[in-house]
Amino acid sequence: MNEPVLAGLLTDKYELTMLAAALRDGTANRRTTFELFARRLPDGRRYGVVAGTGRLLEALPQFRFDDDACGLLAQFLDPDAVGYLRDFRFGGDIDGYAEGELYFPGSPVLSVTGSFAECVVLETLALSIFNHDSAIASAAARMVSAAGDRPLIEMGSRRTHERAAIAAARAAYIAGFAATSNLGAQRRYGIPTEGTAAHAFTMLHTHRDGPDELAAFRAQVDALGAGTTLLVDTYDVTTGVANAVAAAGPELGAVRIDSGELAVLARQVREQLDGLGATRTRIVVSGDLDEFSIAALRAEPVDSFGVGTSLVTGSGAPTAGMVYKLVEVDGMPVQKRSSHKESRGGRKEALRLARPTGTITEEVVYPAGRPPEAAEPCRALTAPLVEPCRALTAPLVRGGEVVSRPNLSAARELVACGLRSLPWEGLNLSHGEPAIPTTHILT
Q: What is the DSSP letter of 193?
């Protein structure tokens, strides 16, 4: 495996060349705010899920440049810039949405405030983490909604970069997945793991007179107990189920089907298991599942789902499409006016309105420190301010010190609450507008 890359080098060259130019002309210490947000949601999506906050806060203290890194930088940076980076420590403030919060177009997911020099160099690190993790969590949340109350297992490690696999498992767990197959994610984040055997173990028990599936199942049960999950579609599903129950008895934990017409097979397998007395044996299905195929199986006797490729690739949206833009300089709002890439100036905060029932109705983005009660024009709001509202922006870093520690359990609960709060049409898998409108109150 490749050696770890220093966090400071997980960046784009132009951030450091901008830094060098700013140090030279004296603008490096101007007080700035950069904002991380999505101009729009990926095609077909009605909401996004914030994920990656904890990983960014973990990476921030490691964002350094050692002697080897500075040797590389000296090839294209002047000595003053290299010296600045050699001693770099982020000393600014970061505010943002809590991990697990829903977001919509224009939501100020993250605000990074400090000198231009210390904020600009964090752009690529922040975007690479949030664009990846939020894409995975957003796809995972759709799958969780499609599955109802049935658990999902993340099984996509072999379909992505070995380090991205751990981040993907974390993001899926935040969104509501019950477990992962990745041991690295268990070790690093304490995520529960699941996994028993692949087709290879069944085929291993092949002799000159042919395969011996029953021997393979007996060996697995002997090693892992009757509560294990037996993969029954290596050869013939009906024979596989019969062999599974013969090997483990009616207390067999589960069977897994990884191919074929899953809906038809699930019904047939349920009937066969019940007929063999294995009425409590669960049925797990896997094999190129996504939110749409999971939804199609919702009425079938499936107890849990294993999802791989579509999850770790964002199920058609491999990036969240977030950007990191300068919005304030020395207290003055600044904004980009490029066609189709506009930004709104000024440091911002946000709150979300909801009906008394808890169903959310609108997101309100306003100038930092000026909530709608004091801001004008309040007539821009589409819902009265007497509705219950909840502040979304919270302090994450102050003076370079992390003040909000990552908490996966809290993030999972926040996603679950967020999904419950969406209007019913917001959970649709079909194309449509964002689940709620976003109102921007200007200065």
A: B
